[in-house]
Amino acid sequence: MKSKIFYGFLLLGAINLISSCKPKNPSTSLGADVASKAYVPPGKHDEYYNFVSGGFSGQMSVYGLPSGRLLRVVPVFSVDPEKGWGYSEETKPMLTTSHGFVPWDDLHHTELSQTNGEINGKWIFANANNTPRLARIDLKTFRTAEIIELPNSGGNHSSPFGTENSEYIVAGTRFSVPPDNVNGDVPISSYKQNFKGHISFVSVNQESGEMNIAFQLKTPGVNFDLARCGRAKSHGWFFFSCYNTEQANTLLEVNASQKDKDFIMAVNWKKAEEYLKAGKGQKVTAKYAHNVYDEKTHSATSKMMNEVTVLDVSELKDICYMIPCPKSPHGCDVDPTGEYIVGSGKLAALIPVFSFDKLQKAIADKAYDGEYEGIPVVKYEAALYGEVKKPGLGPLHTEFDGKGNAYTSFFVSSEVVKWNIKDLAVVDRVPTFYSVGHLCVPGGNTRKPSPKYLIAYNKITKDRYLPTGPELSQSAQLYDISGDKMQMILDFPTIGEPHYAQAAPAELIKNNGQLKIFKIADNSHPYVAKGEGESKVVREGNKVHVYMTSIRSHFSPDNIEGVRLGDEVYFHITNLEQDWDVPHGFAVKGANNAELLIMPGETTTLKWVPDRTGIFPMYCTDFCSALHQEMQGYVRVSPAGSKTALSFSVGKNSNPEEAKGTESK
Amino acid sequence: MNFKLSLLLLTFIVVLTACENKKDKISKTVGGDAASATPTTENYDPKRGEGKYTEASLNLGATIDDAMAESGSKIQGVKCSSCHKLGTEKLVGPGWKGVTTRRTPSWIMNFITNPDPMINKDPELQAQLELCLVRMPNQNLTDDDARHVLEFMRKNDAAK
After folding, report:
1. Cα–Cα distances in Å, from A209 out to A114, A136, A202, B45?
2. Chain B residue set in contact with A, beta carbons under 8 Å
3. Angle at which helices B143-158 and B105-113 cross, to 10°
4. The dihedral of CA A108, A220, A261, A162: what is its sign?
5. What span, in angstroms and rounded, lies between the C-alpha atoms of A337 and A549?
6. Closest B-chain CA to A624
7. What is the ipTM of this complex?
8. How far apart are the first and last CA of chain B?
9. What residues of chain A lie within 8 A of the CB of B30, using their CB?
């Protein structure tokens, strides 16, 4: 009897063991080999970098693919106390605008720099959707290197799309508004008379990357949504989707959905350049900030600009052409050959595909259907290559694989549809979870896509992850598109709301000359301390400048006395380390500010205004060595007018005799 | 009875090993790189250290080159003085006095340009780490920087 029970237990145990070998994940329906496709073993690198817009977080996140591992969040338009971005004295100018210091924005799209229509790994651009701006992030440092504000704009949504050699990054206004140089105090209902659209063509210096507004196109008042450059045969052209051609100023949900067709605006920017050269541009006053970060001084400067050159496209006839496009087009995407332009009407039940060759012929033949506010409207059929019939509900965005296929996201029906460009036939469809917005194929907007994966960025996650109260994350879903059928292989949460994203092969970025440290010898910050011997404290009126150094694991000086109430203290901290991945942090009690995170060889400044007398601790916030907890110090704050002498030291311990006389009474 | 028991046990073992094998496979692919990175003290020469320098390649002069030592002193101020005093007193790391008599020139040159691998392998450095608890950072010295620092150490040791 006993032994039978014993056998029974043994048997049970064996069964248990067998079943424990089975994967417990409920996603087994995805197929047994799915996990291995997205699996990157610990210590191994991913195949791709994925640069994902952070939406209303204002930042850009960087993921590895196919693992979906979050590698970094790069602060761009929003302050980031973790990195001191927008809090340190050096980075505050980066967030300066004509409206003053703006600590937040809404980052929607990213655009990798290109050479000859291929990703070159130098920079990535990003747009600020609220207070219109354009940022350039340096991919050697993964830091925001430059931000330029865009005048005459309201809502920089149609941005930061670029040309084949990043000659220009464009910025089209979502909200048409009265131009900055006229009186904007007009009735909102005077939209049709007073509101104008502006599209900025921002030039990029191919060496330094520095951006400048080369010119703006002044257009009729509409909403510009998205854009793509022409490439290869269509290089020299740019295509912008526009909606609200009804020019409504209220309840756009209904009033901007009246017309059967809105437009894709084709822009011949080479022609615009000719006009510019011929002096047809009008210089108008406009106030906008241009902020640049200098890696040698470790400081940003903000310059207020006051003029921009505008080309009026209603007067300069052959720059712009309107192509009718059904139902409030959102995405406007050009295939790798440059021949096909795909419009995605948010409310349409078909996808129109336009032909660049046919468009050129239509323009030559003047196959027009009248004008829209002075801009020729090309006949729909004259530019149309064909329509994808009944592809799904709510087409938004299209990416390409370079093998003749297009992938379009459908927001309303939550799916990705793969279709063949030549014969306009749907070949495959997969669900997304849920409400997909943009798609990304690495290099999907270039001449040479790298079509192994497709990533869908979703607005709604509902039941996909463990619940976290009312607010849930957004998500990305990764599909293997190397075969005929798309196959979902991974699903991961994202920061902010991801809109558009781009991806590049890992080799291209990691071999671009990644910076590991800032050379201390090259540091030309005005308050640098190159070595402990140069650390000191200097009073200039009520400003106290602390030239401080940090190295594993102490600050110099770490004892400071003689600070008085009413002083402004500037801690200029130089990290003396010259080894990769050894930042030091800095925080001081009561700072109405953030921490500093100082990279090796860098100097960064925290402003601190003590609010009471007493002893204030300061410490290193980034675990730096086994003696990190010892990396600390004190600042003594005395009353205003106190006679306590300014003094500083490191490694000098207290002497009871000496201490007697120095108590401030 | 015994037969039944052993049969069951066998099933048990088979199942167990089936699982084990799977795990093994995974950990093997995972460990591929980690295994090769584990320190091996074989072939380590504690006199020369590890790095690109040998006694022969250094070619030290009989007398001290003051210009080089002066340059080394400046580098010391920026990159070394936070942790090393010039006397015998320990700060974060040991004082420099006598270092050129305790260590060979090639050991010094290798250590200051290639600290991490040497800290992993050198028995004396491991003993030192137990005292200091801070690994000497790689301060990215160029060949010239390192040579000048060595000259400054020699000068520091020559001074009475």
Report:
1. 12, 8, 11, 49
2. 1, 4-5, 8-9, 11-12, 15-16, 18-19, 22, 29-30, 32-34, 77-79, 81-83, 91-92, 133-135, 137-140
3. 130
4. negative
5. 55
6. B134
7. 0.77
8. 89
9. 41-43
Q: Which two tokens stand for residue A415?
A: 């799916």
Q: Select the residue of A7, A44, A552 nearest B134 (Cβ to Cβ).
A: A552
Binary contact (B16, A17; C-beta < 8 A): yes
CA A608-A611-A616 angle, to 5 degrees, is 65
**Which burial class, exposed, middle or buried, applies to A70 when counting CB atoms under 10 A from its CB (0-12, 13-18, 19+)?**
middle
Structure token pair of residue B92: 């974060």
- Find the mean pLDDT for residues B121-140: 94
Residue of chain A minimizing CA distance to B90:
A651
Min distance B33 CA to chain A CA atoms (Å): 8
pLDDT at B20 over 90: no
Supply φ then ψ for residue B14, to 5 degrees: -60, -50
* Dihedral of alpha carbons A527, B150, A631, A633, sign: negative
Quickly count: other Cβ atoms within 10 Å of residue A291's Cβ.
23
Establish if B123 belongs to a structural domain.
yes
Give tens-digit pLDDT for B43-82. 899 999 999 999 988 989 899 999 999 999 999 999 999 9
**What per-residue confidence (pLDDT) applies to A187?**
98
pTM: 0.89
Average pLDDT over residues A643-651: 95
What would the pLDDT profile of A34-64 be if each residue is shown by its tens digit? 889 999 999 999 999 999 999 999 999 999 9
Give me the number of domains chain B comprises. 1
Q: What is the pLDDT of residues A67-92, one digit of tens each?
A: 999 999 999 999 999 999 999 999 99
Cβ pair A391, A351 in contact under 8 A? yes
Q: How far apart are CA A64 and CA A49, in angstroms?
A: 5
CATH number of the domain within which B87 lies = 1.10.760.10
Domains of chain A with bracketed CATH = 48-178+195-510 (2.130.10.10), 520-660 (2.60.40.420)
